[in-house]
Specification:
This protein is an all-alpha fold and 233 residues long. It has helices at 3-11, 17-21, 23-32, 38-42, 45-53, 56-68, 79-82, 86-101, 115-122, 127-136, 138-150, 156-166, 172-180, 189-196, 214-218.
């Protein structure tokens, strides 16, 4: 198992008392297989210290404010590609089938494209396959890193590590489009409700779709100008 990927999955999960108690183990896991540079591991110290010491309810509110109240920081990867379109539903079905074909059943109620779920899956894959999948989403990971850095969030360290693990430079044009999307104010609840008031994701099989590998699905993220990325988020 690739413990680095498992540790990163845990760090991006909703904070719980169990996560707080596991920060020491997570710190060890980040170094255990030598996939991250010493300098990169060092960047996790503020996040690990905060997760270990802060009140769990404060941590949960911070997490929700960052990742659940803004589409531009969503941890659901297909959100950055398909929005709420039917294409996202079809991609989700294919991803579920890919997980099951590999004997992986996510033990969570989160959507299958939720980044912590994907990282848990990658922890059980060959290293090069895991790197290739991350590389296909490099511009999304870099956009999230930049946005979190602007907010002075310690979670930026996780995305810096994911970009390093991908060993791939983000596509400049696709990255620029992502970063051009307007960020919403997490405190403006009325505006947030309006942003999320769109058609629901339709989970239905595409009659023309087979069961592609995860990398093939994530490769769709390399489209430098998906229409939904031009709307406000």
């Amino acid at each position: 198992m690739l413990m680095t990927f498992k540790a990163l999955s845990a760090l991006l999960s909703y904070p719980t008392p169990e996560l707080k108690e596991a920060t020491g183990e997570i710190a060890e896991a980040l170094q255990s297989d030598g996939l991250l540079s010493a300098a990169q591991v060092e960047t996790f110290k503020p996040l690990l210290a905060d997760l270990g010491a802060a009140d769990v309810y404060a941590l949960q509110e911070q997490y929700v404010s960052l990742f659940d109240r803004s589409r531009t920081l969503s941890l659901n990867l297909f959100e950055h590609v398909h929005g709420e379109s039917r294409d996202r539903g079809s991609a989700m079905v294919d991803l579920i089938e890919t997980y099951r074909a590999a004997g992986f059943e996510p033990a969570t109620s989160e959507l299958p494209d939720h980044l912590p779920v994907l990282l848990e899956f990658l922890a059980h894959q060959p290293l090069q396959d895991a790197r290739d999948i991350l590389a296909d989403a490099a511009h999304i990971l870099e956009a999230l890193r930049v946005r979190l850095t602007r907010r002075e969030s310690d979670y930026a360290a996780v995305f810096g590590a994911l970009v390093q693990l991908s060993a791939q430079s983000a596509d400049a044009e696709a990255l620029a489009i992502l970063l051009a999307a307007e960020e919403s104010d997490p405190e403006d609840l009325e505006a947030l409700d309006a942003v999320w008031e769109e058609s629901e994701v339709t989970f239905g099989p595409d009659p023309n779709a087979g069961c592609p590998q995860v990398r093939d699905m994530l490769a769709q993220m390399d489209d430098p100008a998906p229409k939904h990325l031009n709307r406000s988020a």
